[in-house]
Amino acid sequence: DTQMTQSPSTLSASVGDRVTITCRASQSISNYLAWYQQKPGKAPKLLIYKASTLESGVPSRFSGSGSGTEFTLTISSLQPDDFATYYCQQYNNYLTFGGGTKVEIK
Amino acid sequence: EVQLVESGGGLVQPGGSLRLSCAASGFTFSDHYMGWVRQAPGRGLEWVGRTRNKANSYTTEYAASVKARFTVSRDDSKNSLYLQMNSLKTEDTAVYYCTRGSGSLNSWGQGTLVTVSS
Asked: Do A93 and B38 form a contact (C-beta atoms < 8 A)?
């Protein structure tokens, strides 16, 4: 099984900050990685797939990079609507989610 | 507009069974892989299982934690997805989401809560 490890688990930031979340795979997953945003009581929303492709309608301040085992999600300038929990997910071998990163207000 | 609407959640005793349904609309259901993801209270996301589309022989795959207890099925004539859950354990308590996608999951339902408790 491919394990996904996200860091940090919690991140405190202010509006306008540049934020980076890391996701590591236990084995190479090529670029078969997605990122999701989830707000309390709501279903997750797809932000990025294939490691760096922005889903339609997602603001361009979100970007993804990486391949193999190391991936990052970057929010270039944090907005009030971005305070949420973010998950990575690999789909190279079945599907596995990372443990999540909660982005909270500093 | 893509819509996925789950139903069938509720309270069930350990060892019991429950069947969840997901009604899909707004897209050609038969073309897509469909599946289930769950989230225990206050916890992260866990993939449960999926069914491929007709072109891929409707084959199914499951997470190790539910294999042999849960069954994913679909009825393309009704645009519906199902999750039959048997031998339920307290650790199966979660919100269950219906999802669309073969890798990345681009559509999710609102979720249905399953509580396994005596």
From this structure: no
Q: Specify the length of chain B in residues.
A: 118
Q: Which residues of B6-39 are buried (b: 16+ CB within 10 A; e: fewer)?
A: beebeebeeeeebebbbbbeeeebeebbbbbbbb
Q: CA B114, B32, B63: angle at the middle one, nearest 5?
A: 45
Backbone angles phi, psi at B90, to 5 degrees: -60, -30
CA distance B46 to A17: 30
Residue B2 near residue B107 (C-beta atoms within 8 A)? yes
pLDDT in tens, A39-97: 999 999 999 999 999 999 999 999 999 999 999 999 999 999 999 999 999 999 999 99
> What's the N-to-C CA distance of chain B in angstroms?
40
Three-state DSSP at A82 gives helix
Tell me the nearest-neighbour CA distance from B46 into chain A, angstroms: 6
Q: Which residues of B touch A100 (CB under 8 A)?
A: 44-45
For chain B, the average pLDDT equals: 98
Q: Tell whether omega for the bond before B14 is within 30 degrees of 0, i.e. cis.
A: no
Kindly state the tokens that stand for B57.
């022989």
Contact A89 B45 (CB under 8 A): yes
How does residue A14 score in pLDDT terms, banded at 50, 70 and 90? very high
